[in-house]
Write a structure and sequence with these properties.
Helix content: 25-40%
Distance between the termini: 58 Å
Order of helices and strands: EEHEEHEEEHHHHHHHH
InterPro entries: 2Fe-2S_ferredoxin-type (IPR001041), 2Fe2S_fd_BS (IPR006058), 4Fe4S_Fe-S-bd (IPR017896), SDH/FRD_Iron-Sulfur (IPR050573), Succ_DH/fum_Rdtase_Fe-S (IPR004489), Succ_DH/fum_Rdtase_N (IPR025192)
Family: Belongs to the succinate dehydrogenase/fumarate reductase iron-sulfur protein family.
Structural class: alpha+beta
Strand order of the largest sheet: 2-1-5-3-4
Subunit structure: Part of an enzyme complex containing four subunits: a flavoprotein, an iron-sulfur, cytochrome b-556, and a hydrophobic anchor protein.
Largest sheet: 5 strands, mixed
Strand content: 5-15%
Radius of gyration: 20 Å
Organism: Elioraea tepida
Pfam families: Fer2_3, Fer4_17
Number of strands: 7
Shape: elongated
Number of helices: 10
Length: 238
Amino acid sequence: MTDMLSVAVHRGTGGVRFDRFEVPRRPAQTVLDVVTWIQREADPTLAYRFACRVGMCGSCAMTVNGRPRWTCRTRVETVAPDGRLTLEPLRNMPVVKDLVVDMAPFFAKWVQAKGVFTPRADLGADFAVVPPASPDRAAADAAVECIGCGVCYAACDVVAWEPDYLGPAALNRAWTLVNDVRDGGQDARLAAVAGDAGCRACHSHGSCTRHCPKALSPTASIAGLKRAVLRAALHGGA
């Protein structure tokens, strides 16, 4: 094992310029540690994004040696045994600068997918009781831990081919609400995810599931949406 890492870092916005840095190798070093060292010790103009450093916020996600990852939880020794790292911004989103992407289009698709809770008018003033063991609650629980980091979106081939595709995160969010018995926006939500840019555009490659840092399965959520859309269509809905 070498004492130095050779790190190629995407610069600017065009995707064609990379600067190379020699970074000291440390025990238990994360990729985020590497980026921080470069910004503090070698080039203070390097732009990147991070917050919690402990895998709670997802804001440090980047493309590491070709794969989207949370850099705060990615150990250098697991992804760069040869001492070489290539760091790029997340794919499928506009690049602001260097390693920072504009997340606005990503979250705009959550809105398009009707990923906002709409309370039913007949719930009354008291709290709604949802039994933990109910099938709907179990289906929602399996997908609800998404924190919106964008890794699945960056890994999705369909988004790369069809920029209008809502993407796995937005559809996963829609699925949690489809299974929320307190929600009253189901007709509009199923109509929103049933279009050409919705769940039927998914090719079930499974890249979103393979790359999800939270071990969720957007692929399964999207499959559930496909079934829900079909049932609605058979009953004269979406």
